[in-house]
Design goal:
about 120 residues, mainly beta, 7-stranded mixed beta sheet, 4-stranded antiparallel beta sheet, 11 strands, globular
Amino acid sequence: QVQLVESGGGLVQAGGSLRLSCAASGSIFRINDMGWYRQSAGKPRELVARITSGGTITYSDSVKGRFSISRDNAKNTVYLQMNSLKPEDTAVYYCLMEVIAGTSGGYWGQGTQVTVSS
């Protein structure tokens, strides 16, 4: 069974930085796309950043130039470095991985709260 565990959320002042991590475990053959999404109160979940197995990266316009996504395939882990944080970045952040395993498919992390105070 595949599990994703996130870490690194918390409370930070505007202008500060946080680094999120999401590690997958289980009988994994390969992981294709990895990504980060976020959901704030009363809004739908939205894409923040995504990285393919080939290293192609996509960012939402709202985080370009401030956030950086990376992956460590040996550790089945994806990271999100968040700099110059703004109050509007406050949300629950979720990772999503497209996993090739006994049961292949998209797997979500449990979510980690990021709160940016003004």
